[in-house]
């Protein structure tokens, strides 16, 4: 762990659908960051106390990229930065995660920001990178040209059918047994084999709940928990995710995540939050 | 001669008046890479109870105008792990260590104080009788002077270490409560904890916090707690550690002029981890500019104070 505070310089701020892709000069963070880690960004202007957690979208030498959708006043201000302006960062926070060879990445909307770095690293290392990517509408499918350049095998899905297949990403998981197959195996009292891939997902909470339901209990599923955070270092315990063991306890997403093994999560309590 | 910013609060000598507040400072070592602990006089660790507490359901955090509302619920590892794993990790810490004590009943406070009395790394104890986020919320203690006096006396009996009592800001009259804590044997008072608060998500038509209610901290609390520090200082002359919205040297200086001997920094760490070092540097410059020999000469030195 090497946490630093760095005053980054905005190098570029480009539109990507209804979000912005910021490129920042931040050598300390850039050289330390690993896939699935995040930074805490101080909102420019000085009237917000809490920094905003943002996934490290990608790095290149002394630069990091952040994909930001303006959903509130804070993120809107970050989206308004122009090249030459500064941005106060702390990080990188969270654990990295070794990307398994059988990874299937699943992203929902702006959630692609949480997995893009891992997807890109997989592709850049010459391995096959597979991404199932859903969004409400075509304008919320981000980083399309980058995914294409990297040769990522991407399945696009939109709820309104404006791009790719129509529906929810979770309806297009490859190799999931059909309802009929599940009924037959249940009737025969057979256990279906666990899902063959390691699913690594970043998106809305509801997507995680559905993924967890679709994949068998012993499937390998990892979800990126984007919680309200304050410190990033595990001190304040704000970013609590219900944990399976010990019963009733919580995982600190900033320290033990943000990518968390679904097997460690208490899904009954998590579903209660949705 | 000691450094101009060194000061004593109760029997505890602090290299600087900056104390990291309980809750925000974790178990003392999480911030090592981001906060300069050489600028810190003491760190108050997360509250510890006899058994582990899981804390409140999320969300545990809401942003407020000039503040933050939290409902962590005193999540903590419990006394055993605290003593076995957390305290030994602090051997190299360059500052004093204060254990914050919580409990569901007087006996639990007493038990924790007794268990920590022999711990060499603990330099002082802070009794948290004022957290708004637990069901009993220390209400039996923080709002009633008689119960508080008994509790402090009981804890006093269990430890020879300096004892701080962290009071609640939202009480009818803080002075009898402060006096009760002092009569019970408190060395110093921490004034004050967060104030009960709430946030609503109008889009979702639901409370933001999983616990519905939380505690407001940050700059919004500063003018409120400044008055409380001043009231208690004037009425009792007690050694006070101020807490509430200390995010720079001017806030710290204001509290010291109102009667505090040290200040706790909590919420400000999230915004600016360099705050402790900046506060110490700013105070140092202020003392030199005003030509005081040291910080202790500034305590309670308000001009034109007609109260």
Brief rundown of the structure:
The complex is a heterodimer of chains A (274) and B (307). Chain A is an alpha/beta fold. In chain A, 23% of the residues lie in helices and 31% in strands.
Q: What would you say this structure looks like, in words?
A:
The complex is a heterodimer of chains A (274) and B (307). Chain A has 274 residues and is of the alpha/beta class. Chain A is built from eight helices and 16 strands. In chain A, the strands form three sheets. Chain A has a seven-stranded antiparallel β-sheet. In chain A, strands 11-10-9-8-12-13-16 form a seven-stranded mixed β-sheet, sandwiched between helices. In chain A, a hairpin with a 7-residue loop joins β14 (240-242) and β15. The two termini of chain A are 32 Å apart. The relative contact order of chain A is 0.14. Chain B is of the alpha/beta class. Chain B is built from nine helices and 16 strands. In chain B, α7 links the parallel β15 and β16. Chain B starts with 6 loop residues before the first strand and ends in a 17-residue tail after the last helix. The mean pLDDT of chain B is 94. The A-B interface holds A 1-5, 42, 47-51, 90, 227-231, 233-242, 246, 248-250, 269, 273 and B 23-27, 30-31, 33-34, 46, 52, 54-63, 66-68, 70, 72, 75, 210, 218-219, 267-271, 273-274.
Please describe the topology of this protein.
The complex is a heterodimer of chains A (274) and B (307).
Chain A: E1 4-16, E2 19-25, H1 27-32, E3 38-41, E4 52-55, E5 58-60, E6 63-68, H2 73-79, E7 86-93, E8 103-108, H3 112-124, E9 130-135, H4 144-149, E10 153-158, E11 165-166, H5 179-187, E12 198-202, H6 205-214, E13 220-224, E14 240-242, E15 250-252, H7 253-256, E16 259-261, H8 267-273
Parallel strand pairs in A: 8-9, 8-12, 9-10, 10-11, 12-13
Antiparallel strand pairs in A: 1-2, 1-7, 2-6, 3-4, 3-7, 5-6, 13-16, 14-15
Chain B: E1 7-9, E2 12-14, E3 18-20, E4 42-44, E5 61-64, E6 67-70, H1 78-86, E7 96-101, H2 106-117, E8 124-128, H3 139-142, H4 145-158, E9 163-167, H5 174-183, E10 188-191, E11 195-198, E12 200-201, E13 206-207, E14 213-217, H6 222-236, E15 240-243, H7 249-258, E16 262-265, H8 268-271, H9 275-290
């Amino acid at each position: 762990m090497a946490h630093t505070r760095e005053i980054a310089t905005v190098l570029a701020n480009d539109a990507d659908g209804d979000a912005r892709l910021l490129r920042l000069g931040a050598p300390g963070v850039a050289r330390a960051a690993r896939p699935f880690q995040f930074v805490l960004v101080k909102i420019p202007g000085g009237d917000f106390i809490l920094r905003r957690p943002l996934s490290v979208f990608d790095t290149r030498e002394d630069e990091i990229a952040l994909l930001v959708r303006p959903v509130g006043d804070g993120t809107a201000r970050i989206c308004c930065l122009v090249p030459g302006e500064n941005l106060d960062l702390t990080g990188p926070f969270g654990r990295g995660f070794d990307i398994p060879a059988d990874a299937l990445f699943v992203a929902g909307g702006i959630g692609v920001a949480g997995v893009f770095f891992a997807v890109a690293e997989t592709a850049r290392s010459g391995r096959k990178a597979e991404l199932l990517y859903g969004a409400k509408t075509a304008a919320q499918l981000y980083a399309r040209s980058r995914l294409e350049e990297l040769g990522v095998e991407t399945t696009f899905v939109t709820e309104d059918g404006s791009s790719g297949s129509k529906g929810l990403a979770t309806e297009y998981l490859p190799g999931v047994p059909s309802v009929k197959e599940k009924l037959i195996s249940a009737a025969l009292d057979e256990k279906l084999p666990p899902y063959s891939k390691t699913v690594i997902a970043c998106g809305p909470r509801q997507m995680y709940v559905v993924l967890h339901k679709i994949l068998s209990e012993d499937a390998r599923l990892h979800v990126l928990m984007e919680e309200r955070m304050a410190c990033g270092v595990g001190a304040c315990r704000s970013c609590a995710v219900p944990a399976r063991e010990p019963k009733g306890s919580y995982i600190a997403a900033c320290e033990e995540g943000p990518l968390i093994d679904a097997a460690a999560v208490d899904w009954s309590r998590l579903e209660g939050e949705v | 001669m000691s450094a101009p910013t060194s000061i004593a609060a109760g029997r505890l000598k602090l290299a600087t008046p900056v104390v990291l507040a309980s809750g925000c400072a974790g178990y003392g070592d999480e911030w090592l890479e981001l906060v300069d602990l050489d600028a810190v006089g003491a760190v108050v660790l997360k509250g510890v109870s006899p058994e582990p507490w899981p804390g409140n359901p999320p969300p545990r955090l809401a942003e407020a105008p000039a503040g933050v509302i939290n409902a962590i619920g005193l999540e903590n590892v419990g006394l055993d792990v605290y003593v076995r794993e957390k305290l030994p990790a602090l051997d190299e810490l360059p500052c004093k260590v204060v254990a914050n004590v919580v409990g569901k009943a007087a006996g639990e406070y007493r038990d924790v104080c007794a268990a920590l009395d022999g711990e060499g790394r603990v330099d002082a104890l802070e009794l948290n009788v004022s957290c708004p986020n637990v069901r009993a919320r220390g209400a039996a203690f923080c709002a009633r002077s008689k119960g508080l006096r008994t509790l402090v006396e009981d804890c006093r009996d269990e430890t020879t270490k300096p004892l701080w009592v962290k009071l609640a800001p939202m009480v009818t009259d803080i002075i009898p409560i402060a006096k009760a804590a002092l009569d019970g044997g408190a060395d110093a008072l921490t004034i004050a904890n967060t104030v009960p608060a709430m946030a609503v998500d109008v889009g979702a038509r639901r409370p933001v916090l999983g616990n519905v209610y939380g505690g407001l901290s940050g700059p919004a609390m500063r003018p409120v707690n400044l008055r409380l520090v001043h009231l208690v200082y004037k009425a009792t002359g007690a050694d006070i550690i101020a807490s509430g919205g200390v995010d720079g040297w001017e806030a710290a200086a204001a509290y010291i002029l109102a009667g505090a001997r040290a200040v706790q920094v909590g919420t400000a760490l999230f915004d600016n981890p360099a705050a402790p070092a900046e506060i110490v540097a700013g105070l140092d410059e202020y003392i030199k500019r005003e030509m005081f020999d040291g910080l202790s000469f500034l305590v309670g030195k308000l001009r034109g104070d007609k109260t």
